[in-house]
Amino acid sequence: MPVIPARRPRVAGTTVAAVVLAVCGVLGYVEIFTKGIDRLPEKPCAGAVDRDLAARALPSARKAEERGKLTTSSALDTFTFWCYVRTDEALISGEAESGIATDESWRARHSSPEGEGAGSLSVNGVHVSVRSEPATASVYIPCTTPRHAGDGAHSLTAEARTVGETRAQGAELRQILADFAYQLARHAYRVGECQEPRELPDELPRIGSN
Q1: Cα-flanking dihedrals φ and ψ of residue 135, to 5°?
Q2: In 3-state terms, the chain is what percent helix, strand and coil (to 5)?
Q3: 3-state class of 91 per DSSP?
């Protein structure tokens, strides 16, 4: 009687190949459809902020874009630095702008209400306030531009927020926004040539830690 060759190795090989293709398909999907933010510069917005903040705040996406821009008013000697990182579905953005504001007037306007979902901190002349509804963060730093040296109270204020769905929630999102706003303010403080000889920390303390 003729011997019929076994076919099992071929079946097993086919199964392995199918699994490999499936894994490659999944990895390809992750690479193509979820790594948009990771393809941005490590420091988006002309080096103003950390890409990791946007990656932690926003959901995965197929593509993402960023932009940072400094605008100035020669008549008023003021400046604004704008920044955003966005996908098709979500956005984290902020702006830091020079102006005339005292510590007291800023606190009166931006101090966080009491209760869960709010917080504030101060370090080396930098004041930060966060809110949860809607999730926003505000930063105040005394800043006198060259033209206004010795001319009253001048300031640099920054605000940050998200639009659309977010990956982070609650306290984590508020901390991300605080860090985003602070990094914007820190960058603007340098490019706007604020005259105060202030040492700004590399990063903020964690909200609620002081």
Answers
A1: -70, 115
A2: 35, 30, 40
A3: strand
Sequence-separated (6 or more) residues with CB below 8 Å from residue 23: none
Beta strand segments in 133-207, E: 135-142, 155-164
Q: Tokens 């209400």, residue?
A: 113
HSE, side-chain direction, 13 A CA sphere, residue 40: 29
84's tokens:
């955003």
**CB of 154 within 8 A of CB of 144?**
yes
- What is the C-alpha to C-alpha distance for residues 142 and 127, in angstroms, rounded to an integer? 10
Whether 190 contacts 143, CB under 8 Å: no
* Angle of CA points 138, 116, 155, to nearest 5°: 15
Is the four-CA dihedral 7, 11, 13, 14 of positive or negative sign? positive
For residue range 64-108, list pLDDT tens digits in order. 999 999 999 877 778 999 999 999 999 999 999 999 888 889 888
Contact 120, 181 (CB under 8 A): no
Reported as a single tens digit per residue, the pLDDT across 3-26 is 545 555 454 455 544 433 333 343
pTM score: 0.81
Question: Beta strands 126-132 and 155-164: pairing type?
Answer: unpaired
Torsion of CA 20, 26, 32, 33, to 10 degrees: 170
Q: How far is CA 86 from the centre of its chain?
A: 10
